[in-house]
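This part of the workshop introduces the protein records we will be handling. Getting from the letters to the C-alpha cells is the skill we practise here. The record below serves as our worked example for the rest of this section.

…
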Amino acid sequence: MIEAELRKGQVTDALEGLCLALGEKSLHFRTEVCNTNSQRTTNRAWDNVHKFDVKAQQCQSTYRQAWSTLLHLSIDPEYLATLHNITDDNLKVARDLTDERRVGQRSDTLPWFWRSGGTVDAGGQ
C-alpha cells in the first residue's frame, strides 16, 4: 500500500510537471520564436523551446512508469479509471488554444490531463 501511495504521488507530480512544461513551451514559442528577427535569435529561441519539450518527455516517461506499476498493484479501480495513456499527440499544444484571436477552430479540445485539474487524487486535499 505504501508503494501504491508513492506511485500515486509520482503520477500527480508527473502530470503537474507535464502541464507546466507544455505551458512554458508554448509561452516561449509565442514570445521568443514568433518575435525573432535573425537566424541567431531564431536558433536560440528554438533551443529554449526544445528544452521544455525534453522536460515534457521526461514527465511523460515518469508518468508511464508509475502508471504501469499502479496497474500491477492492487489499488482502487476508480482511481485507475481516471488515468489514461499519454500519447505524443497529447504533447502538442494547438495554436487554437494558445492564440486568443483564434476561436472555433478544428482542435478546440485539450488532452485529458489538462482537464483533470489536480483531482487525480491529490492526497485528500
